[in-house]
Amino acid sequence: MLNEVQIQAIIKGTGYTIIIAIVAVIIGTVCGMLVALGRISHNRILNKISWLYVWFFRGTPLLLQLFMIYYAMPLIIKDLTGHPFPINPLMACFVAFGLNSTAYMAEFFRAGIESIDKGQLEASKALGMSYNQAMFKIIIPQSYKRLLPSVGNEFIMLIKDTSLASTVAISDLLRTTKTMSSSSGNWIYYVYAACVYLLMTSIIQFGFDKLEKKVGAYE
Amino acid sequence: MSKEMIQVVDVHKSFGKLEVLKGINFSVNENEVVCILGASGSGKSTMLRCMNHLERITSGEIYIDGELADKRENDKDMIKISPEHAQELCMELGMVFQRFNLFPHLTALENVMKAPMLVKKVDEATALKDAEELLKSVGLYDKKDEYPSRLSGGQQQRVAIARALAMKPKIMLFDEPTSALDPELVGEVLEVMKDLAKKGMTMIVVTHEVGFAKEVGDRVIFMDGGVICEEGTPEDVIDHPKEERTKAFFSKIL
C-alpha cells in the first residue's frame, strides 16, 4: 500500500497535472477564439497569420514545442542578447501547452462558428448590428453547444498530454509514479496512476455532459 | 405629393459573371405598399437585399428617405459614407426573411428586445415594454417566453416581424415572408402584414401571394430576367398585363 509520503507525492504530481491542463485550457479557449476569429475574418493579414499559427502548432509535435520553449528559447535569447535567460519549467509548460491547445481550439471554434446558419448573421446585420455585435451576441453563443464536445475532448487530451511535462523536470503524476515504481520495484503504482488519470478524465467528461444539456436547453 | 422613401436608380448587380440585376429603376412613396412579383431567379430577392446592404450593388444609386445611401460603379464605392452612417440609413429599413432567421438561443421576447438594446442602447425596461407591446400587436404575447423551436412557422414569422418593427423602421422589406410556411399558416402572417399596411407602414413585399398583392398592394412590380418588366396598379399588372412575359407568368399561376 501507499505510505503517507507517497500519497503526498502523488497528490503533488496530480496537482501539477491539473494546473497545467487548466491553465492550458484557459489560454487555449481565449486565444483559440481570437485565432478562430482571425481565420474567418475578411482581413487578409489576420487571416494569413492565424492560418500560419494553426499550421505550425498543429503540424509539429507538442514535445518539440515544449523543448523549443524550455531548451531552445533560453539559448536563442542568450545568443541574441548575451544574457542568460533561465525559464521556469512550469512556466514553459503553461506556454507550450497553452499555445498548442490554442491551435486546436481555434479550429474547433472556427468550425463551430461556420456551422451556424448564414441567415443569423444576415438577420443581425439587417437589424443594424455591427459585425462584432452579431458575432459575440448572436453567432458565438449559438455555437457553444456545438463546441462543448470538442472542448471537453481537448481538455481530456490535455490532462493526458501533461505527462510530457516530466521531460522538463516536472514531477507530474506519471513521473512521480515512475520514480516510485523503479525505486521500490513494484508495478502497482502504475495502476494507481491510471486510476487517478481516469478519475480526472471522468470528472471532466461528466461535467461537460451536464453542461451540454444545460447550454442546449433551447433546442 | 407624397415623399419618396426609397429610390433605386439604374441598379446593376452581378455575381461573378452572372448579371442578376440589369438596370433597375423604381421608387416607393411614403405609406405605399409595393409588391414585387416574378419567377424565381428574376432578381426580386436580390433587389431587396441590395437595399439594406446585405448584398452590395455593382453599380447604381440607392436613396433612402431622400438621402443617398449607396452609389457604386464597377463594385467600387463612389461616395464616401462612413460605415456608421450607412448602418444608420439601413436601420430605416426593417427586413423579414423567408426563413424567419429568428435567434434560436433567445426567447420570443428576447429576440424582439435584443437589437434595440444592443444597437440603439435602449434601456432594458423600455425595450421590454416595447417588445411586449409588439408581441401583443402580432397576437403572440402569450408565447413571449417560448424559444423559436417551440413555435410554429407562422408564429416564428410573426415574431420576426415584431423583431424588425422593434427598431422602428420607416420601411419594411419582406422577402417572400410566407414561402417557407405550411399553407394553413400563411393567412396569419398575411393578416399581420395587412394590419401593418393599414397603419400606414411603407412596405416592399417580394411575394408569390397574388391575392395579397391584389388586396393590399398599392402598386405591383413584375420582374423578369433582372429587369422590371411591368409596373402599375395590381389590376393593371395582374389582371390586364400588357407585356407577353407578364401574361405568360400570370396565366401559369392564376
TrEMBL record, chain A:
Places the protein is found: Cell membrane
Record has Transport as a keyword: yes
Stored InterPro entries: AA_ABC_transptr_permease_3TM (IPR010065), ArtM/GltK/GlnP/TcyL/YhdX-like (IPR043429), MetI-like (IPR000515), MetI-like_sf (IPR035906)
Domain ABC transmembrane type-1 intervals: 14-208
Main location: membrane
Record Pfam families: BPD_transp_1
Parts of the chain that traverse the membrane: 15-37, 49-73, 85-106, 187-208
Membrane topology: Multi-pass membrane protein
Keyword field: Amino-acid transport, Cell membrane, Membrane, Transmembrane, Transmembrane helix, Transport
Family: Belongs to the binding-protein-dependent transport system permease family.
PANTHER family: L-CYSTINE TRANSPORT SYSTEM PERMEASE PROTEIN TCYL, MEMBRANE COMPONENT OF AMINO ACID ABC TRANSPORTER
Protein's recorded name: Amino acid ABC transporter permease
